[in-house]
Amino acid sequence: AQKITQTQPGMFVQEKEAVTLDCTYDTSDPSYGLFWYKQPSSGEMIFLIYQGSYDQQNATEGRYSLNFQKARKSANLVISASQLGDSAMYFCAMRARGSQGNLIFGKGTKLSVKP
Amino acid sequence: ETGVTQTPRHLVMGMTNKKSLKCEQHLGHNAMYWYKQSAKKPLELMFVYSLEERVENNSVPSRFSPECPNSSHLFLHLHTLQPEDSALYLCASSPRREEQTSPLHFGNGTRLTVT
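YS: structure for the whole thing
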């Protein structure tokens, strides 16, 4: 079975500091994709970053980077230089062959950026 | 217009009403999805359509009835709902259902309240 675990219900970070949001996953598929989404209070689900199971390097997109540790089955999101607009829910998700490519989500982490 | 568009953004309906949620994508994708997001629960996949054919129905009550008339449009018909059906309903699309490397693109969601 495919499963995503996010153990931090809420996180606080000071503006301009970096923050790491944790994500662990479980799958027996050798091929899978890991995704992070941001959901502001308005509700839209915004795609941030993708990491493939065979990618040798950690993915980066602007201020977002993904700390991918395959042996530990973790895919933590690092946000550098936090901004007030980063306050939102963050979801880790996975697509794998075992789930027919369906996107499976974790419960999310609520990030609050303090001025 | 590009992206995934959902209407209405907000909907309040009584338990005896019949209403429909609409989703439209202009990304040329072949797969479309309905997700339900309730408070304090992970996003739940409800229905998946691939090339206008329903390929997954995750034990969703029959009071929810999806329709996919073409690859660009997806509807969710609602009738005799219960108060516990109140949630954010998110539509998404992706290039192909089986493609694990592509993110799902989400609409802004319809916030449904059943009174």
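YS: worth flagging: Chain B has a mean pLDDT of 92.
IM: good catch. Also Chain B is about 0% helix and 55% strand.
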